[in-house]
Write a structure and sequence with these properties.
The protein is built from 21 helices and four strands. The chain is mostly helical and 501 residues long. 50% of the residues are buried. The strands form two sheets. Strands 1-2 form a two-stranded antiparallel sheet. It has a two-stranded antiparallel ribbon with strand order 3-4. It starts with a helix and ends in an 11-residue tail after the last helix. The radius of gyration is 24 Å and the shape is globular.
């Protein structure tokens, strides 16, 4: 079975998919007129826009939830693997991917907001919603929601829980079963509080863990300040095949940089759309811009911090697949330890081990609590679309117990097969999502043009789908109708009989 899954993954996650993400990101960058650059100021200021709607969460809370999901082992081990196989030049191509991926994220999140719904008193949106309303493919939207529920709610938690349990066992000698039970209990307290509690925890925890991680990187750079110019030179010359040591690695550097950049940021995969569907904003493009910023934070802060720590300290090997080692600084050491060893040069290897354990715990923990919200949103979509509202409470409780049970299972079981099946599911959805958002990109561009025009006029952009020719945006259409009714009721109308004329 594992061989079959590995075979499928070899085709699904081929270089074709990796470079499709890069090509689509470039296309979105051009058609949005480099929105990730010209609207950078808005991307930052919109973070602090207040939310007075009890049905939704703020843009900052959605950003924190999204970053909590995006930032994980891919930002640590994934970057190290890219350097190990593709050399320092992979970092440059990871940056390029992040830059283009920011435009991709803008498109998919703007579509998420356009086609969101209000279900069970909360705002919901994501990949199945815009497949259903944008492409009018009900059966396919429901199928994608079911697959996402299984992948995100059942399979992925085992992987994250296993990472936490093994890290805690290695650093503090606590049995995995104990870690799994404590982890499930802590997650239960949070997820039973609903999206508001998840958002609040993420709002405080994510900035703390990100700043702490970047802080260690800054400290390492400060202690090795004289090596910084040489490090940048190494990255750029390796990426452009100008470094004799890494000559011949150009193709691998590009492939690994793009692949790991996509894995770390998840821009275009569709798995990071659900948090943004929960936000309350006056215009879809606003949340698109906020989430475009999340790619910058994920790639240019967290991934770059990992790369800089590894490269500035020399704690890495470069061993291309099937070839002899080009760089062998750490004999017999795998990429999963590069970051830990780099941190260890700051104080001691014990410090590096403990800080890495704490970082992985926080990164994986925030990912786990956001998994629940993604799963819950997909279940809500299926219930609403198939008119199964009466089964709501039973399904919700079963889903929660299922996720918590898989956390405990994952803590004590390492399952390569689960990793493989998960990658197959997400890879297929990645192909589908990229094609979907490419097909619907004109809709997102209409929303962006409307946002730009209102900003140019000095207005706070407010979305009215009928004015820009967007259909099936039922949430916004209902809101627009209510606003129209309110304006009609308040609009002065002359009635002579009432004034005695």
């Amino acid at each position: 079975m594992l061989e079959i899954v590995s075979f499928l993954n070899g085709y699904i996650w081929s270089k074709a998919l990796v470079f499709l993400f890069l090509a689509v990101g470039l296309y979105f960058t051009v058609i949005t007129r480099f929105v990730q650059v010209r609207r950078l100021k808005d991307m930052i200021t919109l973070l602090f826009e207040k939310n007075n709607d009890n049905a939704g969460i703020s843009s900052f809370q959605a950003l924190a939830m999204s970053l909590g999901s995006r930032i994980g082992t891919g930002n640590i081990v994934g970057v190290a693997v890219a350097i190990s196989l593709g050399g320092p030049g992979a970092v440059f191509w990871m940056w390029i991917t992040g830059f283009f991926g920011s435009a991709t994220s803008f498109i998919e999140i703007t579509l998420t907001q356009i086609y969101k719904s209000k279900l069970e008193g909360e705002y919901r949106g994501g990949t199945p919603f815009y497949i259903y309303k944008g492409l009018n493919l009900k059966w396919f939207a429901v199928s994608s929601a079911i697959v996402l529920t299984v992948v995100i709610g059942i399979l992925w938690p085992t992987v994250q829980a296993n990472t936490i349990a093994l890290t805690v066992q290695d650093s503090f000698h606590i049995p995995p079963l104990v870690t799994g039970i404590l982890l499930a209990s802590l997650i239960a307290v949070i997820i039973y509080g609903g999206v508001k509690r998840i958002a609040t925890v993420s709002e405080y925890l994510v900035p703390f863990m990100a700043l702490g991680y970047v802080g260690i990187c800054i400290a390492l750079l400060a202690f090795n300040a004289s090596e910084i110019p040489a490090m940048f030179t190494l990255i750029v010359t390796s990426a452009l095949n100008l470094n004799a040591t890494f000559a011949g690695l150009l193709g691998t550097a590009i492939a690994m940089g793009v692949q790991r950049g996509v894995f770390a940021s998840a821009a275009g995969l569709g798995t990071e759309t659900f948090e943004s569907g929960a936000t309350s904003v006056s215009h879809p493009a606003k949340q698109g811009l906020v989430q475009a910023l999340s790619i910058y934070i994920d790639t240019f802060l967290i991934c770059t911090a990992t790369a800089f720590m590894i490269l500035i300290t020399g704690m890495y090997n470069v061993v291309p697949s099937g070839k002899d080692a080009i760089v062998s600084n750490l004999s017999g050491t795998g990429p999963e330890l590069y970051t830990q060893l780099a941190m260890g040069t700051l104080v001691s290897q014990t410090f590096g081990q403990y800080f890495m354990a704490a970082s992985l715990f926080l990164f994986c923990f925030t990912t786990l609590i956001t998994y629940f919200y993604k799963m819950d949103t997909n279940i809500a979509f299926v219930r609403e679309t198939l008119n199964l509202r009466s089964s709501g409470n039973v399904v919700n409780h079963l889903a929660r117990f299922g996720l918590l049970g898989m956390v405990i299972f994952g803590a004590v079981n390492s399952a390569p097969l689960i990793w493989g099946i998960t990658d197959v599911g997400v890879g297929l959805l990645g192909w589908i999502n990229v094609i979907t958002i490419f097909t619907l990109s004109k809709i997102a561009i209409k929303a962006l043009k409307d946002y730009d025009e209102q900003k140019k006029a000095g207005l706070n952009p407010v979305f009215h789908p009928s004015k820009v020719g967007i259909k099936n945006a039922d949430f916004w259409e209902e809101l627009e109708a209510k606003e129209g009714t309110a304006e009609t009721e308040l609009d002065p109308v002359f009635r002579p009989s009432k004034v005695g004329i």
